[in-house]
Design a protein that fits this description.
By secondary structure, the protein is of the alpha/beta class. The chain contains nine helices and 18 strands. The protein has helices at residues 36-43, 84-96, 113-123, 147-160, 242-248, 270-281, 302-309, 320-332, 337-345; strands at residues 9-18, 23-26, 29-32, 65-77, 103-107, 124-125, 131-134, 166-170, 173-176, 181-182, 191-192, 200-202, 206-208, 222-223, 231-235, 255-260, 285-290, 313-314. It has an eight-stranded mixed beta sheet, with helices on both faces. The chain has a four-stranded parallel beta sheet with strand order 15-16-17-18, with helices on both faces. The longest helix has 14 residues, at 147-160. Bound molecules: aspartic acid. Aspartic acid binds next to loops. Residues 18-20, 78-80, 109-111, 135, 137 line the site of aspartic acid.
């Protein structure tokens, strides 16, 4: 796959990992079928100008074409079966072909796309090219579908817009990947970025909010993979006991994303707080994110401060998906727990909004920021 800038064409590598987008209805429901998506794309005029080499788009409004190649993963997966090894495989594929292409599109199931986008954002340090994840709610092979628009716009962003970030493109919006969440399993408008505005919106015109886009890094790409670690997420619920929490935090646990209420509150009860304190004293990194769709973890309430006093660090406005992947990525770098805690409260890839002295209370005393 050698890179040449060929006249009016930009080159994009499409990593096809699975998901509804390329599925076909079989006897047991929708299933991914090897080779099927490429065959379908090659039949559509939007993706294949017959006067050009295969898989080259017609010239659009920008007077440029996107030529793409497809690298299909084997096996193709429903994204609900994806794990750390799949994230690493995608990241290493991007590293291997980085110099040969102008940008990358990752075709992915929508169920766990926010996790993969977040994971890639941490793994691909000093990323200088666009990496756009997309999928669809209806397969591309069906008459009515959201796949054609999503793939076409993702190719346009990856090929023609120099946005050096891992993003998710869905239903007319380009979102920062580590801010995105799947919010709807029925609508085409399935992905949102509740705590950070879109990087671009697509209508008659494509409008990019360049002031929000991360600056192009000076350093070359450096890929720092994940390793399998004992990191978990737990959603608080009324009535959770200290005993249950202590059992969950037992033997071998290295980090926990604790999904709390509102602005980061939890029950101010000694049994729970003791379980958290004992675990964090023994080196488990516990991070507080909110169960609310839109929220920032703030020390506004005594209940939230009690968690901080028990050693729980604030995940601020990170999504649970970003917090989980960030925690497991930092743990994969073999850092001591205090460095991991510091990393969790630091903005590394635009995944959290740091505190501003003017609009918030001071962080709680003893917070390891
Ligand atoms: N279950 C599918 C997946 O995540 C759903 C989708 O692609 O929309 O792979």
């Amino acid at each position: 796959m050698a890179r040449q800038r060929e006249g009016d064409r930009e080159r994009v590598l499409v990593l096809y990992t699975g998901g509804t987008i390329g599925m076909r209805a079989g006897p047991r429901g929708y299933e991914p079928v090897p080779g099927f998506l490429g065959q379908q794309l090659a039949k559509l005029p939007q993706f294949h100008d017959p006067t050009q080499p295969p898989l080259t788009t017609p010239r659009g409004r920008f007077d440029r074409r996107v030529h793409f190649e497809i690298l299909e993963h084997e096996p193709l997966l429903d994204s609900s079966s994806m794990n750390v090894e799949n994230w690493v495989r995608i990241g290493l594929d991007i590293e291997r072909h980085y110099e040969d292409f102008d940008g990358f599109v990752v075709l992915h199931g929508t169920d766990t796309m926010a996790y993969t986008a977040s994971a890639l954002s941490f793994m691909l340090e000093s990323l200088g090219k666009p990496v756009v994840l997309t999928g669809s709610q209806i397969p591309l092979s069906e008459l009515r579908n959201d796949a054609i628009d999503n793939v076409l716009d993702a190719l346009v962003f990856a090929g023609l817009f120099a946005i050096p970030e891992v993003t998710v493109y869905f239903h007319h919006q380009l979102l920062r990947g580590n801010r995105s969440r799947k919010v709807d399993a029925q609508s085409f408008d399935a992905y949102k970025s509740p705590n950070f505005p879109p990087l671009a919106t697509v209508g008659v015109d494509i409008e990019v909010a360049w002031h929000r886009v991360l600056p192009r890094p000076r350093a070359p790409l450096s890929v720092k993979p994940f390793r399998r670690r004992n990191i978990a997420a737990l959603r608080l619920f009324p009535g959770m006991t200290g005993e249950l929490l202590a059992r969950f935090l037992g033997e071998g646990m290295e980090g926990l994303v604790l999904e709390t209420y509102g602005t980061g509150n939890g029950p101010d009860r000694p049994d729970l707080l003791q379980a958290l304190r004992a675990a964090s004293d023994s080196g488990v990194v516990i991070v507080n994110v909110s169960q609310c769709a839109r929220a920032t973890v703030l020390p506004s309430y005594a209940a939230g401060r009690a968690l901080a006093d028990a050693g729980v660090v604030s995940g601020r406005d990170m999504t649970a998906e970003a917090a989980l992947t960030k925690l497991s990525w930092l743990a994969s770098q073999d850092l001591p727990p205090d460095r991991v805690r510091r990393g969790m409260t630091t903005n590394l890839r635009g995944e959290l909004t740091p505190p501003s002295r003017w609009n918030e209370l001071d962080p709680p005393a003893g917070s390891p920021t």
